[in-house]
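lol forgot to send this yesterday, sorry. struct tokens for the thing we talked abt
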């Protein structure tokens, strides 16, 4: 359903919130105007209201929760599986009175999103999987993230090495991918995922369930992602009935950081129901 643009001024504004779900507290940021969109982070928790949040908030009311445990650096005892996080996020939607939403999930957030779509398909309007974890198949096994040292994790996650130059409000802004806050949070996410799954970035049983996902689905992938291999994007596309794929050139596991404008054009076109070619994708 088309949604009027909120305007850049509104999209840049956000408010912090906190929702109590059972014994757990879920912190989140909310901004924008329009139909609700749940944006689930990956290995790195949100570092603020970033370019991807603002771009999505031009057309949606964006809810960006921090998965409990990702800020503290240790999992709460109530969370023992990816499915637990999926149930928690559905309960978060209840708490915030979100009956149905578009859901964008990156990395481990994509894995959680897949389980949400299987547990409660009636709650999902459209689904966007961004370099999603979750698959573990014989021909393309899931990465065992616990076995990656810092250098290997960095090389697997990013196509860009060193300093990434991104567009800012007043010109370009250098982003230190290795020494900055983003990679520190990725390392924290690595520890959390290891505690959650033993380090495996997928599950064998998910493959057979993909055919049951009913939502219109966009698969977005960085072509140079070595953490979740590009083969997984094509498997998702072949198994999820109403899906299409966009591979972003020059990006790794974090296309929303390495190629933010391309990422937003692809995702926003899909959410608006437009099927237009986007430069820098295939």
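and heres what i got for the seq, position by position
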């Amino acid at each position: 359903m088309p949604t009027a643009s909120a305007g850049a001024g509104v999209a840049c504004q956000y408010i912090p919130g906190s929702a109590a779900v059972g014994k757990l507290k879920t912190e989140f940021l909310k901004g924008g105007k329009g139909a609700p969109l749940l944006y689930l982070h990956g290995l790195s928790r949100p570092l603020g209201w970033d370019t991807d949040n603002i771009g999505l908030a031009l057309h949606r009311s964006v809810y960006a929760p921090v998965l409990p445990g990702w800020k503290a650096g240790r999992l709460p005892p109530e969370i023992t599986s990816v499915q637990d996080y999926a149930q928690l996020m559905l309960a978060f939607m209840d708490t915030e009175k979100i009956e149905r939403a578009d859901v964008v999930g990156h990395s481990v957030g994509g894995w959680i999103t897949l389980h949400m779509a299987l547990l409660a398909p009636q709650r999902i309007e459209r689904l966007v999987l961004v370099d999603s974890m979750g698959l573990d198949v014989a021909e393309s096994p899931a990465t065992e993230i616990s076995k990656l040292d810092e250098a290997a994790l960095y090389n697997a996650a990013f196509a860009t090495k060193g300093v990434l130059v991104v567009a800012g409000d007043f010109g370009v802004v250098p982003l230190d991918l290795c020494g900055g806050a983003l990679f520190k949070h990725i390392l924290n996410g690595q520890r959390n995922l290891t505690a959650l799954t033993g380090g495996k970035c997928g599950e064998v049983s998910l493959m057979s369930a993909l055919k049951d996902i009913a939502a219109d689905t966009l698969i977005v992938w960085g072509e140079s992602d070595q953490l979740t291999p590009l083969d997984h994007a094509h498997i998702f596309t072949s198994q999820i009935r109403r899906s299409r794929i966009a591979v972003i050139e020059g990006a790794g596991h974090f296309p929303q950081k390495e190629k933010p404008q391309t990422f937003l054009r692809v995702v926003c076109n899909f959410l608006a129901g437009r099927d237009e070619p986007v430069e820098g994708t295939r």
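The mean pLDDT is 94. anyway ping me if u want another try
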